[in-house]
Amino acid sequence: MRVLSLLTLMVFVLAALFPFWFTDQLPRVQNLSLIMAPASEHHVLGCDWLGRDVWARLVYGSRDTLLIGVSTSFCSIVAGLLLGTIVMFGGNILNRFYAAFLDIAQAFPPLLGAILLASKQRCIQHGCQ
Fold first, then answer.
1. What angle do CA 116, 118, 121 make, to 5 degrees?
2. Which is nearest to 44 in space by CA: 27, 61, 56, 36?
3. Local confidence pLDDT in tens for the 129 residues of the chain
4. Are 21 and 3 in contact (CB under 8 A)?
5. Which of 2, 40, 67, 88 would you label with 48, given CA atoms 20 to 30 Å apart?
6. CA 52 to CA 54: how far, in whole Å?
7. 53: helix, coil or strand?
8. Do the Cβ atoms of 56 and 23 come closer than 8 Å?
9. 51: alpha, beta or left, given left = phi > 0 and alpha = psi -120 to 50?
10. Contact 53, 47 (CB under 8 A)
11. Rounded CA gap, 25 and 61, in Å?
12. Cα–Cα distance between 57 and 78 in angstroms, integer?
């Protein structure tokens, strides 16, 4: 299972780095005669509502996905190391404050936070008070 996961990850990284190895279509080229075309030998996953090749858009989009994932992971590691170092050298009061903050954050259910954010967005869009 590990080998299969590693191979899948390697194919994903190769597709992100060298998308022209996996498709000869360009993701932004529109061909209005191919609107919603089904899968064929030239368009593996068919075409979208503007006649763009869906497979090419997926392959070229993997570059952005990989960049976002790696940069997010890197930023969270740097932030965690920085915050952990500050708390470690900050003394007992800062350590207690940080521990209390973590207890509050872990007690707050993530689903409730998502519901609150969604309701706030709905109020912003529809003018709720």
1. 110
2. 56
3. 999 999 998 998 999 999 999 999 999 999 999 999 999 998 999 999 999 999 999 999 998 999 999 999 999 999 999 999 999 998 899 999 999 998 988 888 888 888 888 887 766 666 665
4. no
5. 67
6. 6
7. strand
8. yes
9. left
10. yes
11. 13
12. 32
What is d(CA 68, CA 16) in angstroms, rounded to the nearest whole number?
A: 12
Q: Which helix (H) or strand (E) holds 97?
A: helix 92-107
DSSP helix/strand/coil, 24: coil
* Structure tokens belonging to residue 122: 């709905």
Q: What single-letter amino acid sits at 27?
A: P
Rounded CA separation 74/80 (Å): 10
Contact 38, 46 (CB under 8 A): yes
